[in-house]
Structure formats: C-alpha cells, structure tokens
Fold this sequence. Notes:
Number of strands of chain A: 0
CATH topology of the largest domain in chain A: Tetracycline Repressor, domain 2
Number of helices of chain B: 16
Oligomer: heterodimer
Number of domains of chain A: 2
Order of helices and strands of chain B: HHHHHHEEEEHHHEEHHEEEEHHHEHHE
Strand content of chain A: under 5%
Number of helices of chain A: 11
Distance between the termini of chain B: 58 Å
Radius of gyration of chain B: 22 Å
Radius of gyration of chain A: 23 Å
Largest sheet of chain B: 5 strands, antiparallel
Structural class of chain B: alpha+beta
CATH superfamily of the largest domain in chain A: Tetracycline Repressor, domain 2
CATH class of the largest domain in chain A: Mainly Alpha
Shape of chain A: elongated
Amino acid sequence: MANAEKIKDNYIDYVLTNGEPPKSVYNFAKKTKITEADFYKIYGSFEAIEKAVWEDLTIATIITIKEQEVWPQYTSREKMLSFFYSYMELLKTKRSFIIYTLKKHPTKITTPNVLSGARSVFESFAEDVINEGLGSGELADRKLFSKRYKDALWVQFAFIINFWMDDDSAGFEKTDEAIEKGINVTFDLFQRSPIDNLFEYGKFLTRNGKLKEKMGF
Amino acid sequence: MKTQESMPTTKVERSAKFVKTGFQIGGNYVKHYSKKLFNPDLSRDELNEDNATDIYNSLSQLKGSALKIAQMLSMDKNILPKAYVNKFTQSQYNAPPLSGPLIIKTFTKSFGKSPEKIFDTFNLNSIQAASIGQVHEATLDGKKLAIKVQYPGVGDSISSDLKLVKPFAFRLLGMSEKELNIYIREVEERLLEETDYELEVRRSIKFSKACANLKNVVFPTYYPKLSSNKIISMDWMEGLHLKEFLATNPSQKLKNKIGQALWDFYNFQQHELRAVHADPHPGNFLITPDEKLAVIDFGCIKELPEDFYNPFFSLIAPGLMDNKAATIKAFRELEMIQPNDDKKQIEFYHKAYKEMISLFALPYTSKTFDFSKPEFFEQLYAWGEKIAKMPEFKQPRGVKHFIYVNRTNFGLYTLLNELNATVRTDTFQPHLSK
C-alpha cells in the first residue's frame, strides 16, 4: 500500500542511513515494497519528495501558529516572529535531512529548486501578514516598495536557515537571537521612519522651493 | 508597553557600546577640567554625577550580566561614591521585555507545549523584568503563579560581558587588572550559576525548607515539573516592595518586625546553613499583607567554606580584637595581611582593618541595634571613601569570598537602614570551631 507519507518517510530514512539518494526509483520502490508505478503516481522524482518535505513543513508551521489562541492579538511583526520560531522548532525534528537537502545545492544566492515550493507558501503567508500590517497602519505603505516587503522577508528566511545550519549553540539559542534581531530590524524598516519624512521633505522642496533655478537646472 | 527591539548581543556591538562610554567619560573629564579653569571651586561631585549617568545609560541598554554587574556595583555603597550609587540603583528596575513569540518558543522548547496549553491563563506581556529574565503572570487550577523566563543567550554572553566590563570596573574602583582577576572569576562563577534555573529551583526548595521555621519569613512554593533550565514556576506572592511598603507609612513596630525577619533570615543562613542568599537587593523581597517577609529569588547563593567562616566570624567575637596576635593571625588567614608584607605594612593593615571590622561588627556588639541611625552609615561610607583614596588599598586584599559576603552584609544593613528598623542582633550566634 503506497501513500505519500510512507514514501516520504522511507526516502528520508534511506538517505540518512546511506548518506546518498537511492540509485534509482526502481531500486527504491523495490526496497519499499511498492511498484515503480505507485511511486510515480505520487512523486515525479526524488527531488520532488525533498521539495514536498519543505513545503509540508512550511504549511504545517503556518497551520500550527494560526491555531494559537494569541494569534489574532499579534501584530504583523509578532506573527512573523512566531512563524520563524515555530518553523525552526519543526525543522529541528528533521535537521539532518534538511541539511542534507540544502548541502546538495552549494549556491546560496539563488533559491535552490528544492525550496521553490516552500518559498511560494511562505510568500503568500508573508503577503497576508504584510497586508494586515499595511491595513492597520503598523507598516508604512510606500508606493514602490510595499510590494517588495515580502522579498525582504524571504531574504531573512534564507539568512535564518543558513545561520541555523551552522549554529552549534545549545538548543540553537543563537538562532533564536538571530530571529529576534533580524525580524525586528526588517520590520523596523517597514515602519514609517525618519527616512520617509526626509523623502517627503525632499519632494516638497523640489516642488515648491526655488531649488531648481538656484541650482541652475 | 514598548518591547525591546534591539538588544546588542554580539561582542562587537557590546564593545561598541562600551567604547562609546569610554569616550563620553573622557569627554566628561575634559568638560570638568575646562569648567574648573574658570571655576576652581567646582567639586568632583558633578563630574562623578556625569560619569555615573553615562555609564548607567550604556549599561541600561545591555541586558544580562552587564545589568547584573551594575547591580553588583550599586550594592557596594561602601566603595563607590554616592553619585555612582544613585544612578546604579536605577538599573535594578525596568529593563524592556522580549517579544511574545520568543516567550512561546522558550516554552515549546522546554515542554513541547505553548504556555496557554500548560496554564489555564498566561499573560504574554511580562509584568516585571528580572536582570536575566522576565516575570509573567499565569493561573493554574485556580492558583495564581509567577513564571520567570530567562532571556536567550544570557549564559553565553556573561563571560564576554565580564571581559568588557573589566576595564570599567578597574577604572571605577581604581584597581589594576592582574590581581582583580581572581575576584572577577568569583563573580563569573556566581553569575553563571544564576543562569542555571534548574539549580535555582533545587536551591529555592532546599532553602525554603531549611528556613521554614523562621518567624515571619515566607517563601513561594516552587513547581519543578513546570520549570526548566530557562523557566521557573512558583506561587504568585502578593505583597509590596520595600519602597511601596514604606510609602504606606507602616508603624515602627511593623518595621521592626520586618527588619527582624530580614536579620534572622540572613544570620540563620550564615551561621546555621553556612550558605547565604547573596543578593539582598530590594527587588528580591516582598512584604505580604499579613505582615511577613516573602523571599522570592534564590538565584545567587554564596557558600561559606570553613577556612573563611572561622577566621572571619572569630573577629566579631567579643574581646578578640584586643588580642593583637590573634587578630593578625585571623587577618593572615583571610589574606588581608599577606606573607610578604613588612613590619610597617603589618602595623598599617592591622590598624586599618581593625577599624573596618570594628565598624562592620558594631551591630553584633550589643543585644539590639538601631539601623535608622545615620551616623553608623556615614561612618561606613566615610571609611569607604577614605580607603578609596589610600594608595595602600589600590590593590585588592582579602580572600575572594569577601566580595559576596560583604555585598550580602552591607546589602542587609542598607535594607535595614531603609526600613529604619531596630532589631535584636543576638538571635543567631556564630558557631566557631576552635
């Protein structure tokens, strides 16, 4: 009897025990006592399994945090903090496998394919949280930039995962600090700040001051 | 309440903070001396005040051990000039709290459950900051509980903090680095112990059991099953902090009763348990509505080894100070007089320390002692300021145990002074082995 969970668990077990992916889907299917056709009904490739693991963990995190009683009282900032704290807790349960999936992709600049599913889940979550913040006035609505806020959070996502991979502190305490600081800084930037006022002031001066003539434009 | 958004934790950030203070202090001296050019009468008080403000402002932005060190320094009123003390005392109150999600995370890590699933109610907004953690209110089975949650990374940053604070401590205390290291290590040990909440729960239970028979002293019940290395759960104690209590204009009789409870609590521990709650700052005590002293923090415990206890308390035994040879012997055991001191030095330190111990032991020399008398404290401060100016005391002397024992006893005296209490001082006597 083949199901997605079972295949996933067997695959994770195989990879962690052997330190490498199975030689072929046929080989893996045989060990799992399913047919190759059963496998392909659910996953197109081994990488699809890895992608699904990430995606499932991300979705599971979002579901868990939204079930918290305090969730509706949280600000956007706290919602994002809450996501990362719970996410890291969940990733911890599969740390070896998680690191295995990422170590295969040495480039850190572009999003590795294995994260693409998780990324779209995360970004739609981030967008909801950001829109809430924009709606309540917690975050500053900046014409060109508001749409990019979610990208900034994705950068934090990547940074935090990378930090965690190298974190050897007890209970990954340092990662907690990285989250608390990183997310707070990012949200500080999303909030209305002196830079906004400076920008406004500059706009005002170019429109109304005689700056242009004086500068010889 | 505004939640703290940035806590400088990497060493680089913290260093930057301290460097800034260094510059400002330099600046204050420049300011002081340039003012002095025009006004030679200007006292050093203003300079001390300026320095204290800057140091305090820097320290208050640092959590954890730096705050703790500020607290430590603030307890040693006998060493620091008054202006420093007033500023530092502020650091015992109100550090800004951490975010709600981080609190939940800490619970999930410890118990696999969020606080709302462990307790019937849990308030995510902390009601009070402790130096290395914050306190939350919760209820369980109709009981109100106080839950202490530790800041992440505190233990980690203590050693690096101490290294950074060192130069400041030296400057403040006017001492050099090499010989102070042994004391710094003692402080580091105690501070690291304070970050071990599991140890604190075990000690709290042990001490509250041992002290259970003391009159008018009460302790909260601790819940080891709801505690972890980052979390302590205990009964919520109703009561007033010392300042609030005094604001209610309590009767002299009541003040004496609370003062007596404090005195008994400390002296019972010193002489019967040989280990003492070494953090007598006002935040660790409450005065309950039924007029009892509640002790709510056992983070810092100082054990008194035999080779310290005996010579130290032999000194306050009546008559010993009249015996010069025996006094010098005790001073040697306590390393207040050192092996390579010459005759003149022995004479000098014998006289100076005899003066200090006589002063310190004054409350023990009569059956009762009135701590409201300002003369006693003025004498203590005056002695502190006097030795601060003496080149002979530039280098620290005495075994490392003095730091916490002095802190404890001066802290106790100060609390009793604030209470204006008169207490019986003969309730617990030293047991000396000959």
